[in-house]
Structure formats: structure tokens, C-alpha cells
Amino acid sequence: MLWYIRTMYLGIQSRRQKEHQRRFYWAMMYEYADVNMLRLLETFLESAPQLVLQLCIMIQKNRAETLPCKGSCFAPYLE
């Protein structure tokens, strides 16, 4: 949450202070990139345990069940 507030602060400062506009703008862009990387890492860490569990179950059963792939997005290519 603090990252978002800091990014917003730097964005506002880049609009207000014309003499330091470029410096605040680039600081805001770096903060925004950091926030996006943290969001990506958080998403990965949330989904990784489920993937590991699914792989363990597949290995223990010693088989990989495949599903027929005929969805609406692939239908034009399959006909």
C-alpha cells in the first residue's frame, strides 16, 4: 500500500514542480515499475503452490490425464 502512495506522491510532484518535473517523473516511473514487479511476484507466489500440488498428485498416480482440446477458441482451426 505504501508503494502506491509513494508513486502517487511522485506523480503529483512531477506535475506541480516544473523545475524538478523530469526528476520526479523518472522517480515515479521507477516506483511504478517496482510496484508492477511486486504484483507479478505476488501473483506467482499465489499460484505456485497449487501447481506443485497438482504435479505431485499426477506423479503419485503415475499418469497424466489429458482433456480433449476442442474449445470455442480452437473450433475454427479444428474443422
Automatic annotation (TrEMBL):
GO terms for cellular component: plasma membrane. This is XK-related protein. InterPro entries: XK-rel (IPR018629), XK-related_scramblase (IPR050895). PANTHER family: XK-RELATED PROTEIN, XK-RELATED PROTEIN 6. Belongs to the XK family. One of its GO terms (biological process) is phosphatidylserine exposure on apoptotic cell surface. Keywords: Cell membrane, Membrane, Transmembrane, Transmembrane helix. It holds the Pfam family XK-related. Signal peptide: none annotated. It is found in: Cell membrane; Membrane. Its main location: membrane. It is a multi-pass membrane protein.
